[in-house]
Each structure stands twice: as C-alpha cells, then as structure tokens.
Recover the amino acids of this structure.
C-alpha cells in the first residue's frame, strides 16, 4: 500500500497570502489529522477529520481551516499568512484495530512565509 | 505546566547502552503514543499504549496509568536509533485531541 502523501513538499509564500495543503491518506483509512511543528512550540494538533466530519479541533485561529472529501483526501487552508505560520505541516491517517490506533504520518509540507 | 512532560530533553549515549526516556502527563487519557522522528522530519509511530507494556524488537514501552507515567526503553542501542522521540497522549474528556511532549533528542555515538 502506498503511504500517506502530502503535496506540495515545500512552499514559499509571502505575508497576507493564503495557502492550501493537500493530504492523501492510506487507502481505506478514514481518519486524517493535521499537525503543525515549529522549533519553538513543537508538535501541535490542528484538526482531525473522520468520514468528512471534523471530529476535533486544536487551539488555532480561524485562519486555519480544513476539510475532508468523500475519498478521505483532506486539505487544509491557511488564509492571511503570518510569519509565525512558517512550519512543517504534517498529516497523519489512522487505522483502528479495535481500540488500538496506529497513526501513519506523511512526509510533511514545509512552509516558509516571508 | 505542560500537560505532557518528557525527560530528559537531550540524551547522548554510547552504542550498546540501555536507554530510558520518560513521559509524565497530568490529564486522564485514553491512550499514549510514542513516536520517532528522524532528521528530515519523517515521523514513525512506535507504540500505542492504554495499559501495561509493549515490545517491538529492541524497543519496550510501559505505562502506569495510576502514576500517569510512561517509559520508552531501547536495549542494545545503535547509532541508527538517533532521533527525536515524542510522547503524545489522547485525552478522555472534552476534545480527544493528541497533546504532545516536547520530545527527547537521542544521540547514540559509535
């Protein structure tokens, strides 16, 4: 099975612009989560989607939004970019066997805001 | 105080040493995850625990729910084990989002 894929892998934007990142989960995985990783804050949860519904949301401003499509692919959007949005954005899809969850992470999209 | 605290933050050891990384949390949890992140950013999920102990190869993870504490052990450490190890917990109340520790940077010297 192909792993979790994220596009693009690298992105440079300027302040005020918006950006859309894409994540394709492993085939058959219905849960997709997004995370932001920065040197200062470490890994932080953004949102989680399951079967096209947002199941959980982290403590990020409304400029951060996401959605999931019927094929489980997910996108996240950041509007009005700020310098502090520069980060590695990771997507993970989850597989559940009973109560046991295994997360599979994508390679990430590295966003630089100038 | 962070909900999830890891110790140590940095650890350097010689090849072959027994390694222990600790994770303490302050909230009720449904599960605890140990993750490994290599230079370049790729993250691999090592274990998910809700009780007891799990073993995979040279890696052992334990959790004590009453003490709100988990440990990750590496036996016969090898330079390829050099990575950042991250503990994350999923809460049982409110939004069940994953909350991460700050990570432990492990360097194994040959």
């Amino acid at each position: 099975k192909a792993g979790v894929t994220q596009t693009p892998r690298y992105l440079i934007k300027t302040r005020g612009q918006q950006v859309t990142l894409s994540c394709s989960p492993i085939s058959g995985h219905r849960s997709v989560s997004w995370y932001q990783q920065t040197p200062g804050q470490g890994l932080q949860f953004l949102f989680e989607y399951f079967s096209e519904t947002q199941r959980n949301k982290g403590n990020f401003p409304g400029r951060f939004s996401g959605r999931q499509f019927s094929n489980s692919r997910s996108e996240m959007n950041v509007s009005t970019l700020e310098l502090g949005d520069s980060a590695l954005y990771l997507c993970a899809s989850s597989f559940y066997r009973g109560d046991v969850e295994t997360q599979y992470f994508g390679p990430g999209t590295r966003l630089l805001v100038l | 105080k962070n909900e999830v605290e890891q110790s140590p933050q940095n650890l350097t050891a010689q090849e072959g040493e027994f390694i222990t990384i600790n994770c303490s949390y302050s909230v009720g949890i449904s599960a605890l995850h140990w993750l490994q992140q290599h230079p370049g950013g790729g993250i691999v999920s090592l274990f998910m625990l809700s009780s007891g102990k799990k073993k995979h190869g040279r890696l052992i993870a334990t959790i004590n729910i009453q003490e709100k504490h988990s440990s990750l052990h590496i036996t016969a450490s090898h330079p390829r084990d050099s990575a950042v190890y991250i503990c994350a917990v999923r809460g049982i109340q409110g939004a069940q989002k994953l909350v991460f520790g700050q990570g432990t940077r492990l360097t194994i010297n040959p």
Observations:
- Chain B touches chain A through 22 residues (CB under 8 Å).
- Chain B has a mean pLDDT of 92.
- The radius of gyration of chain B is 13 Å.
- The longest strand of chain B covers residues 29-37.
